[in-house]
Amino acid sequence: MEMRDIDDLPKNAANYMALTPLWFLERAATVHPTRKAVIHGSRTYTWLQTYQRCRRLASALSKRSIGVGSSVAIIAPNVPALYEAHFGIPMSGAVVNTINIRLNASTIAFLLGHSQSTIVIVDQEFFNLAEDALRIMKEKSQGNFTPPLVIVIADESCNPKTLKYALGQGAIEYEKFLESGDPDFAWKPPQDEWQSIALGYTSGTTASPKGVVLHHRGAYLMALSNPIIWEMNEGAVYLWTLPMFHCNGWCFPWTLAAVCGTNICLRQVTAKGVYSAIAKYRVTHFSGAAPPPSVLAGMSQKGFRVTHTYGLSETYGPSTVCAWKPEWDSLPPETQARLNARQGVRYVGLECLDVISTQTGQPVPADGKTIGEIVFRGNIVMKGYLKNPKANEETFANGWFHSGDLGVKNPDGYIEIKDRSKDIIISGGENISSVEVENSLYLHPAVMEASVVARADERWGESPCAFVTWKPGVDKSDEQRLAEDIMKFCRSKMPAYWVPNQ
Amino acid sequence: MEMRDIDDLPKNAANYMALTPLWFLERAATVHPTRKAVIHGSRTYTWLQTYQRCRRLASALSKRSIGVGSSVAIIAPNVPALYEAHFGIPMSGAVVNTINIRLNASTIAFLLGHSQSTIVIVDQEFFNLAEDALRIMKEKSQGNFTPPLVIVIADESCNPKTLKYALGQGAIEYEKFLESGDPDFAWKPPQDEWQSIALGYTSGTTASPKGVVLHHRGAYLMALSNPIIWEMNEGAVYLWTLPMFHCNGWCFPWTLAAVCGTNICLRQVTAKGVYSAIAKYRVTHFSGAAPPPSVLAGMSQKGFRVTHTYGLSETYGPSTVCAWKPEWDSLPPETQARLNARQGVRYVGLECLDVISTQTGQPVPADGKTIGEIVFRGNIVMKGYLKNPKANEETFANGWFHSGDLGVKNPDGYIEIKDRSKDIIISGGENISSVEVENSLYLHPAVMEASVVARADERWGESPCAFVTWKPGVDKSDEQRLAEDIMKFCRSKMPAYWVPNQ
């Protein structure tokens, strides 16, 4: 159709800007400069201080040639520096590459190499882990290795010896690094909202983790969707039990700036730490992995209101919600639990969600029975996997993002997972590749066959469980000793939480 | 800088879609099909029904050749059809052109001609007004006039004679029109989020109103900003005291779908109607024009929590908010009132707000004294004025949208209006052009000189006040009679609320 007057008005500098969550931080610092933005133990930063620290970080990175196209890795638990990384790194133009602290050195070595991170920010608790990873990278590099600059985060829990050692190895202390930056640095918002903002690795069915790339537009939209889904009002107080390195904390770092709320950091998540923070700071929200029904029931009794969401790193974290209906209020608890355990409906920021036949690609009927693959389409679906055209082609086939999860569509339109087409075990919210665990088991001299499956776990939701057969000639008189030997073997090959247990 | 791997991931059908608030309606109908979406007197429509009615409307319009590039006008108070128009018209690809019911026939004739609306939906109460407007259009057309199709809305308040008359004139009844449409119509989301969604006319300093064109992207972003600014949670109950024809009800029609809330329509805003609705439907939110401090104080005493916002049709409605700070809680009421009367800080969906020198174009210091023009930049700034390149050039000069309002920036960053550079009087939230009123006064045979200014008004905030001098020879013995004669004269030339009063 012809362009008519009504549409013939071009974009200009006043009415079009790239969407980015970075402006939320500038706004929070303007509106509530003295409000507490980040609390970590005895340390507190206001929104103005947080903004200045992030600008310093962006400035210091820029001085080290970090900019558009760069990746900066960070290996840290939920400390203020990790929060700041979600703003300061993109404010330099670069991509924030958050790394799971529970990974082992060889996996981290792979990630740092794959992401081409030239700066690594690491919490002192994980300095040795980072050091091991860099050593592996160097060994594998055949003499062609430029070590990244290491910035070490040292808070009050830091052992002075660790810090001294790190500095001796050429690391720069994080606070010193910030001091080298300008608190009034003129950070550059992205020119294009499709520019990448974050990179996070997810375990797939194959040996190599895949790098999920997110963009400014999606991070902005997810940040504005969260308050609606979670009923999070201006000034919300968010307790960081969910690791910020996990899908960028479901974009909550940016949401908290949008609502000018307060972030409560916890280096370690303990029951005491959680309850103390709730009492002390009047916490309004916290998130975590989907717990088993028994834990859900217990939380409900204690007065927690649980919102059940589902998603993947590829969808900026949760992008479906089991939206509670008032008509469920009067149902028996078991019925409520069954209804609320479903994956539900799409987030307000997601355009399309469906369950499609793996044969025909057509939507399955909403009968609660016909199984198909859960698929997503819209603006909170990732840009793609980094340097992995084959995986991108498969995952984006036919105009859908393919989750790999198998489910049904219920008559009320709520989707529900029934199985996974990918062999993934989700333990404490983190993916474990059953194939990769099996591959390691096969390396053990006594193992003939191995199969790894998910086992229901009261605490973690699922945990890996291995079935093995022994090679001929193996002494089977003490199977307990054999099992222990295999678990020890696994611990040397994979993150501790991946190790099958008894 | 070179494009690197991290940014080299193209858009595809699964991860990029045009932003539009229309998806919110589809989602509300899926998630809460039986929840009340729109209540109007004894009539109630659920979200599923509302979605079906909007699809019928889009379908019926499509059958009449309405599509991308078309404008459909609607002249109605806050009745369900006006709510539906905000979805059904854009779902056909067209632009919804909401018309202020308080305008006179000649102004409406101008608007209908300027917007090239080929279909006009009109509430029965305003059928005669529309008829008069069309007659004026025909008279001025010099025989080259194709009358638009008229759809008449007839609810329970409708006089059967009016309806019969309208149908006799060739109008189609709105419900009949919907029946001609398909409730399962495959509406087409916009291909480009820059596509226009709404057109609304605003009174400026010159005789011709300017047509403000808004796009799907901005409407989406504003719809998601509102819940954060107004602390509007899922299932909010919104009372329509603000006319939906006024800046598209500040985008609240789309916000209500995003939060799956409930719209309470009021044909006429009366104290009884407002209080009854609050009691009956447990209203959580309503909006209106900024009241004078005396009214604000009274509302506060009655338990209303007032959020003060400011904006223009050109910024999708309010795009600044006087964000309340907890530290103001303990201040004396007069100080609170003074602080909260300021225009404040930018909306979360607006990227930049400033006060700039009208001489240098540079930001004024945040001293609360230096006056400059309030300017906006970002994604909730209009596309531009329809068919008005000169006005667009001026209003978008130097990368800012120029509001025409003069103000200061306070030391806390909050902006505050001090004066208007444009001669606009804002009465009950609607703009009145003082120049246009003056121009009419000059047409009166007794008037020598005329000057129209804003007068503080207990009820309307401002009302127009005229100063005149008489021509030589005018009998000044009865000035009261002269004044009454002039007011009568004005009533024939302009909307009733524009008429200066004593």
Automatic annotation (TrEMBL), chains A, B:
Q: What sequence ranges are listed for the domain AMP-dependent synthetase/ligase?
A: 25-288
Q: Name one Pfam family in it.
A: AMP-binding
Q: Is-annotated flag, keyword Ligase?
A: yes
Q: Does the keyword Magnesium apply?
A: no
Q: Which domain of life is it from?
A: Eukaryota
**Any GO MF annotation of the entry:** ligase activity
Record SUPFAM superfamilies: Acetyl-CoA synthetase-like
Q: Which UniProt keywords apply?
A: Ligase
- Annotated ranges, domain AMP-binding enzyme C-terminal: 436-501
What family is it from?
Belongs to the ATP-dependent AMP-binding enzyme family.
Q: What is this protein's name?
A: Acetate/butyrate--CoA ligase AAE7, peroxisomal
Species source reads Gossypium anomalum
Taxonomic lineage of the native organism: Eukaryota, Viridiplantae, Streptophyta, Embryophyta, Tracheophyta
